Amino acid sequence: MSLLKKADILKYCELIEPVPAKDEDLLLAHTPEYLALVKKTREIGGWLNIDTPVTAGADDAQKLITGSALQAIELLHEKKSKIAHTFGGFHHASKDNGEGFCIYNDVAVAGRALTERHGLKRVMILDSDAHQGNGTMDIFLNDPRVLFVSIHQDPRTIYPGKGFVWETGEGEGEGYTVNIPMPPFSGNAQYAQAFDTIIEPLARAFKPEFFIRNGGSDPFFGDELTMLGLDLDGLAMVSRRTRDLALQTSGNLLDMTVSGYGEWVEYGWLAQFCGCEALDTDYKAFSPKQPRRSPPSTEETLTRATASMLDSLQRELRKTWNIF
Ligand SMILES: [Zn+2]
Question: Quick one: average pLDDT of 171-183?
Fold first, then answer.
């Protein structure tokens, strides 16, 4: 918030007080048994997983964040705004499991609210967090109403170890889960390749009625938990292309921004915010000087490895999508 103030960006925003999600909201994406487990864990003080404690603060905060996603979709659905931002993206929580710092999957609760409460038939979720959105994928695996596209660091090299090209959904949902595993150290040019080859053609063919982006700062090359190569301009570019695509297809965008680890997180958020809102703010003027990005592979090698992965992915998607 202080960085948004410093960059004089709050003048473009209306701030809305979040209201916590209720059990009936959380049940859109989670089982009653799981909610009971979280309650019990909070009472006695404990952990759902090695990295996921259920403190009162974490539980309350994630309920607020999930509530804010629901407020955002109402606002966009009523066309009171075209773009809304929340501080969410807890994509590792599945219907009956919490992990990766995630207790409630706000992305999935929002997606389900759109299909169950508003009767939408085509919702697109683009997950550009460096980690694959395994919880969101599991929740929508069989659901052709939600096209889930995750672009992330190659799962052989990072948690949660899921999101290979051949994971494309199940049953009626076959072809509606799309995983783009980027070679480690992929940067701006390789992300642009993935947008050109997969993300944009898919969105245009699917014609979503609603667009959700699960973003975050962790694909930044200086992030401390990941090994990707976007710089601040790359984060802004991904957000700008997401914005343009969302507004051209569904006409709306719910953007979530929570992830990122290390000293660069908020500068990544600022770059993404500016991209998403198409602001010409000089976001780099508010951050420390970026270190030089020096991937161990050449740009050419990265581009070739990305093209080869995108080829394999297109082969998988041809079973469902005649555009490839
Ligand atoms: Zn992440």
Answer: 98
